[in-house]
From TrEMBL:
InterPro entries: Homeodomain-like_sf (IPR009057), HTH_TetR (IPR001647), Tet_transcr_reg_TetR-rel_C_sf (IPR036271), TetR_C (IPR011075)
Organism annotation: Aliikangiella maris
DNA-binding region: 31-50
Keywords on record: DNA-binding, Transcription, Transcription regulation
Protein name: TetR/AcrR family transcriptional regulator
Domain (HTH tetR-type) ranges: 8-68
Amino acid sequence: MVRKKNPQQTRELILNVAAKLLHRHGYKGLRVDEVVEKTGLTKGALYHHFPNKKELAYAVVDELFYKTFLGHWQELLKSSGDPINVIAESFEFSRKHLSQDELEIGCPLTNLGQEMSHEDEGFRTRINNVFEDWTKLIADLLSKGIQQGNVTPDINPTLTARFLVSSYQGIQCNSKFSKDLNRYHDNVGYLQSIIKNLATRAIA
């Protein structure tokens, strides 16, 4: 039973349930009572780990969304392969594996940022930090590529990385509104072609 779990297991259970609800319903639609129901815990047990709804949502962003989101990119972007290919391929997993339901729900971080950034500085800074760290990973790879002679030297790595991250966010939002998975695939493919044209010799 849930009551026999150790404190860390209980905390992880709460976070995982809250993350799914936060993704689907947003912060304003997140109900503590539903978290309690789906975890099988008492409300007192939940509040023992998280004093209020906001702290619970902050922890979901810090401990789950951040780790999951950046973990995928970190694994791909630390590759020793050609930087341009690595960056282009880093978008391929979502292109191949995104389901229709996931497309329509949208990116949890982008959704939460759109919902709460203008209302709560804690959410804004947390979500912005994720995208800033992702941008830095890409910018570092582009700088590495310039040093190796694989990336055209007339680009600004930071500005280019910001453009790529912003473009992908835009693709996600557009696809969520259109509910068109094929359009999503086409747009990500086109973004990958833009990335490959950053090579000193365009990659076919």
